[in-house]
Amino acid sequence: MTTFPLLAVLLPFLAAFAGLLLSRRPRLAPGGRPGGSRPPGAEAVESRGSTEVDGAGERRRAHGRAAWIAVVPTAVSAVLALWLAWGPGFAYLEGAEPGGPVGRDYGAIVTGGIPISLTLQADDLSAVLGVLVTLVALAVQVYSVGYLHDDPRYPSYSAFVSLFTSAMLLVVYSGDLLVLYVGWEIMGLCSYLLIGHWWEDRGNSRAAVKAFLVTRLGDVGFLFGIFVLGFAAGSFRIADVLAAVPQMSTGALVAATMLLLAGVAGKSAQVPLHTWLPDAMAGPTPISALIHAATMVAAGIFIVARLFPAFQASGPTLDVLAVAAALGMLGAALAALAQDDLKRVLAYSTISQLAYMAGGLAAGSDRAAIFHLVTHGAFKALLFLCAGVVIHHVGTNFMSRMGGLRRQLPVTFVAMTVGFAALMGIPPAGGFFSKDAVLLAMEQAWAGGGLTDAAALLLYGCALATVAVTGAYSARAWLRTFFGPARAVAALPEPQPGTAHVVDVREAPRSMLVPVALLTVPALLLGFAGGVHLDVAVAAVSVALALLGAAVVYAFWRGDPAADPARLLGPLRMPCERAFYVDDLYAAVFARPVMALARLVVRTDDVVVDGAVRGSGGAARGLSGILRLAQNGNVQLYVSGALAGILLIAVGAVVFT
Length: 657
Prior knowledge:
Number of strands: 2
Radius of gyration: 31 Å
Structural class: mainly alpha
Order of helices and strands: HHHEEHHHHHHHHHHHHHHHHHHHHHH
Number of helices: 25
């Protein structure tokens, strides 16, 4: 078992390598045979005859190879992760004492200073996260086979998903902070490539660049935080760093954790670096599920839990984390209530739920936060994959063009109902138990914990308000998608002349429905894995608030099913829909001044630098023109000049003697 962590990381990495090299579809020669040259810009499939048939067949074979290369190693990694987590992972969620790690040390890299240890191991915490990552990644890989079956770039897509999975597993199983950082940065690269998968659309490419830049901004602080911790502890090994925490100065701990918090805010989309996540919905829906449930956003919460003793010893950092979590959870929930795009509703929901986890960490309960991270991974992956089925079916992301889909998509309707129940925290869904644990931790912090009174009160108050708003936006999305008048035909593009609209009344392909059906089980029952330790009063208040929010939306919708319940927000609707203008603020404070400065630099380069070069060239040409006047081929002028020179020399000699 000591090599299981290495194998779990290595298998998806090798799958990515093989997928990029071996699954590329060869070009077609005339007549449809592979291997011939083709003119630039030609399509992969010829337009007529046997060439078209051969091209389609070759595409299917390339997709088939890519699917096997992607799915099988991920499945094996999932089995290894389950083996590592059997016992220790469930014990961690139930609050048992941690056991010893399972893994190996593969040597060290000598740097001339503090060495970098190449250690991969699985302890109680990483065992839990390893299962979450591999199972969600496996579901996404299987789902993508059907979702992108007509996409010519599916082979590279599946390879990048495998690399994404390997990078996250490296973060989870790493025993050294700098090795962890390698996986952390590879995830950033993969997110850029996958969000911008359909890069031909300028909006998609801009969303990918935005995600890359915002997360890189946080990663600068994250790297310096690692340096501070490592030099303060004399080692980058996580076990050594945690052992040295009691001996570290308060200033070093606060500085290190504040810097780490910047990276956490970037990766886990926390205030103020949360703006990239809603725009990341431009990528394929399976990637949204992977990012929101098991990789990028989970990494930040995992880091705080992994280094929790250091954060516990830094009171100011916990206060900052609590305030950011309070603002993020309520603000994102209100933004979700006003969105028309189904995927953006789920994106703002993710920001809100991640803030719940961050609030649980700030309140002093890392186990409650990780418990909610695990249950959230299950039901949020389920919700995104169900949203992909709905979008695949109706051809639009907008709920204003959906409605009445429960009869056309019965499996998806049941699965998404379970997902929304878990999101709202309705028993017996998994989200009910984990949200109760987080709220209980916040209540105890308010009663007396590591937070200041103001931060604890703000955190708990915003958490309770968010429960009601979560019930409202979940009910709104559920009702507008599956009930009311059917509006799917209006969502389709205008038909070509001589054709008619064809509305697909079938469910999605089996490769998409199987992951949806399987994810329904953990979304519904995973809460029992953490042990049932309910506080009846907190649970009752939570369920009552969620049902109250849902009831208000239902009452409004019942009166006019065609109307949008977001109108309940009144004058707040537009600020909520624009996510309180944070993007506009960043554009005004950062983007536009930087663009103006860039234009000034371009103008300066053109006028001053290039002007000087052009001016020197012009001056040289002008001077050469003057000198050329003396070289006109007139012998009399040359003789006159020579005599004049001799005369001047003679006069000068007489004068100076």
